[in-house]
Amino acid sequence: MLWLADGRIAGVSGIIGGLWTARNGEVAWRIAFAIGLIAAPVLYGMGGGELPHITVSLPWPLIMIAGLIASCALCFFLQTNPIAKRK
User: Fold this and answer.
1) CB burial class (10 A; 0-12, 13-18, 19+) of residue 2?
2) In the 8-state DSSP scheme, what is residue 28?
3) CB burial class (10 A; 0-12, 13-18, 19+) of residue 57?
């Protein structure tokens, strides 16, 4: 729907992260998108829809370590890749 309405692909991390660097006119739709991410499943559940049961079979410390490693790898990639540095 975002692509049809605004010509953008819904990359959640880019949309949420862009809240801190958004230009005028871009903040409102980013906030609306973030609110929709949270409100949609809540409203669906309130309307009688059954939400999926999610089971995580890995220990949380391992998931947190994996996220930290992925974040560090992304930072390294963005600093060393000449294509990523172009704007």
Assistant:
1) middle
2) H
3) exposed
The residues near 9 (Cβ < 8 Å, ≥ 6 apart) are 2, 3
What is the pTM for the complete model shown?
0.54
Write out pLDDT tens, residues 58-71: 999 999 999 999 98
Q: What is the dihedral of CA 12, 10, 5, 19, to 10 degrees?
A: 30
Write down the domain spans for the chain: 1-51, 55-87
- Amino acid 47 reads G
Helices within the chain (DSSP H only): 2-6, 12-17, 27-46, 60-80, 82-85
